[in-house]
Amino acid sequence: MASEKPILYSYFRSSCSWRVRIALALKGISYDLVPVNLIKDGGQQFSAEFKALNPMQQVPALKIDGITISQSLAIINYLEETCPNPRLLPQDPKKRAQVRMIADHIASGIQPLQNLSVLKQMGEKKMEWAQNCITSGFQALEQILQHTAGRYCVGDEVSMADLCLVPQVANAERFKVDMGPYPTITRINKALLELEAFKTSHPSRQPDTPAELRA
Known about the structure:
It is a single chain. The chain is an alpha+beta fold. The protein has helices spanning 15-26, 48-53, 72-82, 93-109, 116-122, 126-148, 160-174, 183-192, 196-200, and strands at residues 7-10, 32-35, 61-64, 67-70. The protein has a four-stranded mixed beta sheet with strand order 2-1-3-4, covered by helices on one side. Helix 1 links the parallel strand 1 and strand 2. Helix 1 (15-26) packs parallel to helix 3, helix 5 (116-122) crosses helix 6 (126-148) and helix 7 (160-174) packs across helix 8. The longest helix has 23 residues, at 126-148. It is globular and about 45 Å long. It starts with 6 loop residues before the first strand and ends in a 15-residue tail after the last helix. The mean pLDDT is 93.
């Protein structure tokens, strides 16, 4: 039924899943989590059961209000439209455009290029490939944020852009990207990680987080 608790299909380390976990936490939406291990058994996302749920065989997927939504930004936009407080998209059209621009810059221009499915094709060069993709994207993002940022990515309110930024910085750290040239990204990331919604949704605090990676 439409009134049932939402179910999030997630992987602790998936940056796209983390975006959605932050949104759910910020909006105070209680949900059940079903872990989908992207590594174990050759990748549980490739099971027939999960393919029936999400034909793209990716996380996250959210069952909510009688429908299943995949793609993190589509999920976040649905949550924004059905549970508008707190706002993740500014009311001002110009600021709203900037938020969407930054979110798309990360979600379309950086993350997919260093995603697991791509890295599998890169063999021994996967670390170098990921570093180059993130560095190229962060050079542009740093420049953009110098014009849009207040305390956070766009002004002083947390937005959808911030939900994309923090997981991408975590990816950069995993791939040992030098963050020195990106002081604005680093400052915003640090401020966001102090917020409770970003802490509770963190990969180190998920039901499927391996013991050695737990906070």
